[in-house]
């Protein structure tokens, strides 16, 4: 099966940037979430209705205006777009399975006992979801494993805010069946840094499949470019949850295993960060990953 088209854009605004800069005091709230929307990847029930309702709730109570979603199916995005309304745009980029370098698009669900798609129009991928216009979506080529799942790296501009948004899903450690000794994460992060540093205003993040540098030397070495995950007063990008852990490159757990794997970075001034809490005793979170919300200052408030 040939690789599917890389980008599927729903409701995107034609190319070009915003004609007028956002007014003073404009902030942007970006939500990141690995939705675990694929049952065969150990996610259990998809719970589309509940997950869409949760995202809609965050739009209402946390004023979320952009989302970076991983492991999300096109059918889920269709429902999300329907719930959010015409002011929202969606850019979808599918995952692929690489078999000796030959790429096949990854379906959301497969027929029982087979690798055949249950619905050929419903694939799984990452998505950038934005209110008030989405422009210039690009999928960037990255170093990819020979035989393994290949996650995409895509960016798009939040038109009204004039902020570039980039969605990360790093390969898993030693996941290549042909070269199991290789870890692609360090080179992947280096490529991410090389791309995002060209954008004057950027928020990027997602599932890095990597613990924090302070978790130990074996994790610190994956953060290859020191200029990516910065400390206050030093080169690099501030991470969403870093303000709660000053002078440390760490943060609250974002995965059910009790570790931090998900990150949101920006070169804009951070205002606040929310990390989804663990569900109360007797209840479960909707995904094995917790969502994060990062509020950044796009244009400072005018002063007298």
- Class from helix and strand fractions: alpha+beta
Helical residue percent band:
10-25%
Tally of discrete structural domains: 1
The total strand number stands at: 16
Q: If you compute it from the alpha carbons, what radius of gyration comes out, rounded to the nearest whole angstrom? A: 18 Å
Count of DSSP H/I helices: 4
Our estimate of the beta-strand percent is 25-35%
Describe this structure in words.
The protein has helices at residues 48-61, 74-84, 185-196, 217-220, and strands spanning 8-10, 27-34, 66-73, 88-94, 96-99, 102-105, 124-131, 134-139, 148-150, 154-158, 163-169, 202-207, 238-239, 262-266, 269-275, 292-297. With 304 residues, the protein is an alpha+beta fold. The chain has one domain (26-297): Deoxyribonuclease I, Chain A, CATH 3.60.10.10. The strands form 3 sheets. Strands 1-4-7-3-2-16-15 form a 7-stranded mixed sheet, with helices on one face. Strands 8-10-11-12-14-13 form a 6-stranded mixed sheet, with no helix packed on it. β11 (163-169), α3 and β12 form a beta-alpha-beta unit.
Keyphrases for this structure?
304 residues, alpha+beta, Deoxyribonuclease I, Chain A, 7-stranded mixed beta sheet, 6-stranded mixed beta sheet, 16 strands, 29% strand, globular, disordered N terminus, endonuclease activity, Endo/exonu/phosph_ase_sf, nuclease, endonuclease
